[in-house]
Design a protein that fits this description.
Helix content: 10-25%
Strand content: 25-35%
Number of helices: 7
Number of strands: 16
Structural class: alpha+beta
Largest sheet: 4 strands, antiparallel
Length: about 325
């Protein structure tokens, strides 16, 4: 019977490209590097050098879905006479990022008869009470924002209600952004509610994601086979929309050089020109990843990635323990 599967001599996925990416622990220790390119409160860009795509992707997925945060989980609506339905309002509240360090909180117990029990170590409470009224000082032909008081309900209207020792431990717990619009009211309408924030991970719901996005790409590698000089060099520089190429002096003339390979998006515009098609080689460095982590504002991007590495290491330790326990179970018992 003919087999419908194909066998491989090794797991080297880039062997056909002449690149050996088989994992070797000693080589990994020797070659692995992290280079921070830029870092701010909102975004960090750094290079991971000397790792495999599987590891880079594992770190990306953990960064998105397994680093915990605090988010609104329970909404207790006392009164809502706005046009927004209760469930829609609760959903919008849940997506508000809360500015607090989740590492200082515990997961709430899910044991029977304990789900409603809260403490200052696992729950953050907020209240919101906004009523729209007419502004007696506004002219009749004024715009709605001037004609009505409290017309818009924003995330800043959530008032933190400390419990237990939270007042001593935290200065002010608040939404990351105070101008998130939740609802619009007209005179006489009121929203009165209380919410509880608990600890969770993005794998359960996107509201617990600490990042807006986490992505990576391989470092572009552009090679000019034969020197491109004179007018052709100028044409090449003008052809590239990302400004990857530049001109420098070369033997009493000028030649094109690759000056900013990181800016290359592999649009292939340069090799669409017939005179450059065979003279420019586009490739990617298979073990050099340009990583980007954009924070939602709760923690710094570098802190989020550090937590992701810790979680990844814990997973490896757990896997190693499981393998060792299985190996012991397979060992023959001494007679």
């Amino acid at each position: 019977m003919e087999k419908q599967t194909e066998s491989y001599d090794n797991h080297n996925v880039f062997s056909s490209l002449g690149f050996d990416n088989r994992f070797n622990l000693e080589d990994f220790k020797k070659n692995f590097q992290i280079k921070v390119i830029s870092s701010s409160e909102e975004e960090a860009i750094f290079d991971l050098i000397g790792i495999d795509a599987a590891i880079a992707n594992a770190l990306r997925r953990i960064t998105i879905s397994e680093v915990p945060s605090m988010a609104i989980e329970h909404v207790f609506i006392v009164n809502n006479t706005s046009v927004i339905q209760d469930e829609v309002l609760a959903h919008r509240l849940g997506l508000i990022p809360i500015k607090v360090d989740p590492r200082k909180f515990d997961y709430r117990s899910t044991a029977p008869n304990q789900e409603t029990q809260i403490s200052d170590t696992d729950t953050i409470s907020f209240s919101l009470d906004v009523t729209c009224t007419r502004n007696p000082k506004a002219p009749d032909d004024a715009q709605p924002d001037e004609l009505y008081l409290n017309r818009c309900v924003y995330s800043r209207d959530l008032i933190w209600k400390p419990t237990g020792r939270q007042t001593d431990q935290y200065e002010n717990i608040r939404p990351v952004h105070e101008d998130i619009l939740l609802a619009k009211l007209v005179p006489g309408q009121n929203i009165n509610l209380e919410v509880q924030c608990v600890k969770g991970i993005g794998k359960t719901h996107a509201k617990w994601q600490l990042v807006n996005t986490a992505s990576y790409r391989l470092l572009p590698e552009i090679k000019i086979v034969e020197p491109i000089t004179g007018d052709e060099a100028k044409k090449l520089v003008e052809t590239c929309p990302m400004g990857v190429f530049d001109i420098e002096d070369y033997k009493k003339t000028t030649k094109a050089v690759v000056s900013k390979p990181r800016q290359c998006t592999m649009c292939r515009e340069c090799i669409r020109q017939p005179e450059f098609a065979d003279n420019i080689k586009l490739n990617r460095v298979k073990d050099h990843f340009i990583f980007s982590v954009e924070s939602s504002g709760i923690l710094l991007p570098t802190e989020i990635f550090s937590e992701a590495i810790k979680i990844f290491m814990n997973k490896i330790d757990a896997l190693q323990e499981e393998i060792e326990s299985l190996a012991k179970a397979d060992e023959p018992e001494d007679e």
